[in-house]
Amino acid sequence: MVSDETLGKYQMTVGIECHVQLATATKLFSGADNDERGKSPNSVVSPIDFGLPGMLPVLNRGAVDLAIKAGKALNSPIAHVSRFDRKHYFYPDLPKGYQTTQMYQPIIGPGVINIPMDSGESFNVRINHAHMEEDAGKLTHHGGFSLVDLNRAGTPLIEIVTEPDIHSSVQAKAFVVELYRLMTYAGVTRGDLYHGNMRFDVNTSAAPKGSNELGTRSEVKNLNSFRSVERAIEFEFRRQVELLEKGENIVQETRGWDEAKQRTTSQRNKEDSQDYRYMPDADIPPIILSDEEINRIQATVPPLPPFYRESWKVLNLDSTVTNALIADQPTAQLIQRILEKSGTASAARRVAIWQLMAVEGQTDDSGIVQNTGIHATDDYLIELSNMVEKNELSSTAAKEIFYEMNRRPDIAPRDIAAEKNLIQVSDESEIIKVVDSVLNDPSFAKAVADLEAGNEKVIGFLVGQVMKKSQGKANPALAQKLIKERLKI
Question: Which among 192, 305, 311, 389 is least surrounded, fewest beta carbons within 10 Å?
Answer without folding.
Answer: 389
